[in-house]
Amino acid sequence: MRSADEIKRELIHLRFVKKLLLVQIIRDSGCSADHVKQAMRLQASETVQRRLDAYLDAKHLHERPKNSELLYRIERMNMELWRVYRAHSIKMTDVALLSLDRQRRLALAMNKRLKRLLREKTRKEDGYEPMFNDSESYWKCKTRVLARKGIVDTRRKPGHIYWAGSEFKRAPREGS
């Protein structure tokens, strides 16, 4: 069994490094909020220390659940911001801590930012400024821009690969 100091150190690691919510620690450990606070002050009873020790041994309980479609969309937009435009955004560990309403607002703001960056990139590279509807997603706008360049067919299926006889084929590689 861990000592009270070790339990406190592990709880601090879970709360502030892994950013687990106190509510999740309380639910998974079977202790009340007061018991966890007592353990942080090194004043917990032996029973509470045993419960928290058992909770700390169960490593699979220390993971943040990421099963939300909204979080998945935000993560895709976050990766697109960095990969294509080299623009920074909020870390996903911090996004997961936001309330659902704030996550929705963040997704809308990221979508708007991506469309603005796509518009600026298209203006700089191709010389025209595309017009996007406010209700359209960034991914649909990007497909329209690529279709205008002749890179992507708008009627394509999501996993479609262009073959040699296709109307929208990829540019030939150099040396071939």
Defining traits:
single chain; 176 residues; mainly alpha; 8 helices
Write a structural description.
With 176 residues, the chain is mainly alpha-helical. 58% of the residues lie in helices and 0% in strands. It is built from 8 helices and no strands. The radius of gyration is 25 Å and the shape is rod-shaped.
> What spatial form do the alpha-carbon principal axes imply?
rod-shaped
Report the strand count. 0
- What percent of residues are in strands? under 5%
Question: Helix count?
Answer: 8
Which stretches of 5+ consecutive residues score pLDDT under 50?
163-173
What proportion of the residues is helical, as a percent range? 55-70%
Give the termini separation.
67 Å
pLDDT averaged residue by residue: 84
Label the structural class.
mainly alpha
Largest sheet: none
What are the secondary-structure elements, in order, as H or E? HHHHHHHH
The gyration radius over C-alpha positions equals: 25 Å
Q: Could you give the topology of this structure?
A:
Elements lengths: L3 H14 L4 H8 L3 H8 L5 H12 L11 H17 L6 H4 L4 H27 L11 H12 L27
Helix pairs in contact: 1-4, 5-7, 7-8
